Amino acid sequence: MDKPKLFTVGPTYVNDDVRAEMSNQMFSHRDAEYVKLHKELIEKLRKFFQTQNDIFIYTSSSTGCMESSVRNCISEHGTGLSMVCGAFGKRFNEIIAENGRNAVRSEVPWGKANLGEQLEEALSKNPGVEAVTITHCETSTSVLSPLEELCKVAKEHDVLTLVDTVSSMGGTEIPIDRLGIDFCFFGVQKCFGVPPGLAIATVSKKALEKAATVKNRGHYFDFLNLKKFNDKHMVPYTPPMPQMIGLSKQLDLIFEEGINNRFERHRKVSARVRDKCKELGFSVFPDEKYASPTLSCISVPQGFDLKGMYAKMNDRGFVLASGYDKLKETTFRVGNMGNVTMDDVNEMLENLEEVIQ
Amino acid sequence: MDKPKLFTVGPTYVNDDVRAEMSNQMFSHRDAEYVKLHKELIEKLRKFFQTQNDIFIYTSSSTGCMESSVRNCISEHGTGLSMVCGAFGKRFNEIIAENGRNAVRSEVPWGKANLGEQLEEALSKNPGVEAVTITHCETSTSVLSPLEELCKVAKEHDVLTLVDTVSSMGGTEIPIDRLGIDFCFFGVQKCFGVPPGLAIATVSKKALEKAATVKNRGHYFDFLNLKKFNDKHMVPYTPPMPQMIGLSKQLDLIFEEGINNRFERHRKVSARVRDKCKELGFSVFPDEKYASPTLSCISVPQGFDLKGMYAKMNDRGFVLASGYDKLKETTFRVGNMGNVTMDDVNEMLENLEEVIQ
Description:
- Two copies of one chain form a homodimer.
- Chain A has 13 helices and 14 strands.
- With 357 residues, chain A is an alpha/beta fold.
- Chain A folds into two domains: 5-11 and 259-356, Aspartate Aminotransferase, domain 1, CATH 3.90.1150; 17-254, Aspartate Aminotransferase, domain 2.
- In chain A, strand 8 (160-164), helix 7 and strand 9 form a beta-alpha-beta unit.
- In chain A, helix 5 packs parallel to helix 6 (147-156).
- Chain A is globular and about 60 Å long.
- At the A-B interface, helix 1, helix 3, helix 4, helix 10 and strand 13 of A face helix 1, helix 3, helix 4, helix 10 and strand 13 of B.
């Protein structure tokens, strides 16, 4: 990995080949050359996701996908439920309210996962819920909630599932169709290691049918408009073509590595981070049973000089991520999304050991 | 210019230096390095625009800016008026309606400009209008409507001005503060010659004050959220960093060329296109008094083989833009936005002459 060595939680390190490919000259987004790019990219994504759902190209960050799902999958005066176990689950819930929908939430303390029985209880309490938002990997706490049991409960209640896989997609298996995820989205700057500016979402037939009944969906994030153009291998407006080119190249590299090898690498590297951090006298912030394979949130002892640690690591060329929101003063985070190898992380951990001693 | 030579209406040709700069390694969007990039970019844009207004970074295409302006500058059940003289003015009006606002429009035949007296009449007929949308350069017809008289009338009626400068900003002078433009937006892939994926908008104090009174502004395009982060030299979510880096570099190149030299180049090159096309037996589609200096919409004689012309020009490495929407079969368009020089256009026109003979 080049210096500085990024153990951030996105944007993550971008391979030279991807950056080189992205620096190609532009062409018109209404030409045959574009249609070819769009078509090939969707085919590669479909192979990766193993889904029959539509796959949309969003000219936005992942937050735009949240707004899109809310405006299309919850009626104008309908109710959306959010499973919350950290800052990003909370944001998803706020976006429901900010778009004029009725927002309810079911919350567990930070560090815990959202579980199926919790969703069961929340849906029983709120019988009118049209869609539930789930944060698969909660980037603020590094918890990976169990998608399978959550989706199972949602399906039993015939509620749409809107799933934030921003910091998990590409780093762990998410069988979209088998789980029954109606709307699944992520930004390319996390586990896919592409520069930011492009988000991708899969949209089920059921979600599209729902959208057709929802008023005031707006224009920019309207499912039906996106689908109309997607069916022609286009986007309604000018998309972030360099990032699309980069993602297409990155998917080639991912297939070369092997999808399962990639997941295994994430799992092993994150386990190494947690084990070594415990050895160094830190502790793992989340319930370890639900620790994400893509990033780790690490608690430091009281009075520990976090700022000093970041500065010393920066001097050595390593960038760690600070704790998020209310965990800023008590935790730090280590991202291993995308292209981070065991060698990269071992080198970083050796330096961390020297720095804190 | 490299082959293929782009005379499209965006994405336009990108300079080698800009593409090289964009291929740099990524870094965190919450780090000091990002803050420096954001701050410097805004300072350069402010110098270019000569405005005291806030300047927002949109992680979207220009269409996202349209939606943003509608959701922030027109009350939930308020009325927006659109001045329409082509396809993009119509789209802006539809976005008002699609966001649940009351949309009225004042239309002239395609090829004509929207004028001050037309706006005066429309505002007199619709006394409740909160904001007027104006398409400065209508990309479908190549008409440049006279902003100064339109803004003057809007100001007299105390109506907010939402101005689409997508295909004019960077190619002709738009003195934002002097004209009194409340919301002025464009995408970087037109006259700025940067790959697509980033839009920029200037937002007046008055527009921000209005937004504070509007309910249901959503989250992603909310002025107040964008301003809160912009004041810290950040964006609420991960922005398209490569395009920001590219735009910053491109602005350096623009200042080197000289802003006024750049405008003069656009004016002269577009005049050359129109003159030569008339010489070749075509005619200029719009009212020439309002012909844009950034692109030209050219009418062909009845029965003229447009498809054959595009194909033959493509074989020679030149890409022209087809007519838009209802003008598809009767016109073609020549973009000269961004980096197109007189030599480029002369070479293209010589080839065009050979091709049609």
